[in-house]
Amino acid sequence: MEEDKTFIELGTLIIAIIALLQPWLLFIYKKYLKRGKVVFFETGNIEIGFSNYASTIGISGTLRSLNTDFFVSKISLELTKDRDSSKHNFEWSIFRDTKISLVGDGQTHIELPYGILLTTQSPQRLSIQFHDNKQQDDIRPIHEELANKWQSFLDANFPYDQRRIANNLDNHIYSVFEEFNKSCDITDAYAKFNRNFYWDAGTYSINFNIQTSQPDKIFSKKYKFSLNEEQCKNLRLNVITLNDHACEQTRYNWNFAFTNFI
Predict the structure, then answer these.
(1) Are residues 43 and 18 in the same domain?
(2) CA atoms of 67 and 38, how far apart (whole Å)
(3) Which end of the chain is more exposed for a tag (fewer CB within 10 A), N or C?
(4) Is the pLDDT reported for residue 103 higher than 80?
C-alpha cells in the first residue's frame, strides 16, 4: 500500500511539473524548433503592362507569417516565357493603395517599396507593381534621345518666344508634333522601343520570391498565367504611346492586360 501511495504521489508530481513546463516547452518549440515561414495569398488578377516604366507586373494579395515573426526586406519576380525559356527579372518598385474609392475622385496613392515587419498576428495586405529595371535601362536612352530631338524640332519650328504668347498653345504644339511625327527620328525610336517589347501570346511562369532578413531566408511560390493575341496586340500599342510621351504628348492612355493565375 505504501508503495502504491508513493507511486501515485510521484505520478501526481510529474503531471504537475509537466503542466508547469508546458507553456515554456510550447514557446521553445514554436520559437526554436518549429520552422517559421512567410506565405503569400494572391487575390484578383495579374496586371501586365508596358510603359515608360518598361515592362511591369502588378500583383495583389496578403502576406502572412507562420510560427514566427519575419522582416521582409525584398520581394522580386523571375519571369520565364515558356515558349523559349527566356527569363526577365522584376523588382518591387511601387506599393499601391489597397483601398478603392467609391466616390470617383480618381485618387490613387502610391509609395516606394520598404521593408515590412511581418508578425504572426498581423498579416499585411499588399498591391505591388514590379518593374523590369534592366529593360528600363535599355529604353531610357531611346526615350531621352527622342525627347531631345523633339525639343530641337519644336524650338526650330515654333520658338519659345512665340509659344510664350500664343493662344491655343496645345493645338499649335500638336500641329508641330504632327509634322515631327512624319520624320525618320520618330520612326527609328518606334522601331527601337518595339524591339524591346517581349510580351507574346502564350504561357508564362513566375517565381514569386520573398526575401527576409535575420533570419536570411527566401520563400518562393510559383505561378503561371497566359496572354492571348488580342491582349498582346493592345499592349504593343503602348509603343506608340511611349513615342508620344517622349514628345510630351498624352493623347492615349496606357493599355494593360489583365489575366488570371493558372
Answers:
(1) no
(2) 9
(3) N
(4) no
Helix (H, G, I), strand (E, B) or coil at 143: helix
Buried b (16+ CB within 10 A) or exposed e, 49-63: bbbebbbbbbbbbeb
pLDDT of 112-154, one tens digit each? 999 999 999 999 999 999 999 999 999 999 999 999 999 999 9
User: Residue 97, CB half-sphere, CA atoms under 13 Å: how many?
Assistant: 8
β-sheet bridge partners, residue 218: 211
Task: Examine the domain organization and report whether 42 and 26 are in the same domain.
Answer: no
In angstroms, the CA 206 to CA 48 distance is 12
Residue span of the structural domain in which 98 resides: 37-138+190-259
Q: 134 and 211: one domain?
A: yes
Q: How many Å apart are CA 116 and CA 125, to the nearest integer?
A: 11
CA distance 145 to 247: 10
The beta-strand segments (E) located in 82-123 are: 87-96, 110-111, 116-118
- Residue pointed to by grid coordinates 520563400: 219
Whether 88 and 12 share a structural domain: no
- Alpha-carbon distance 66 to 11, whole Å? 36
Instruction: Summarize the confidence of residues 28-40 as an average pLDDT.
Output: 70
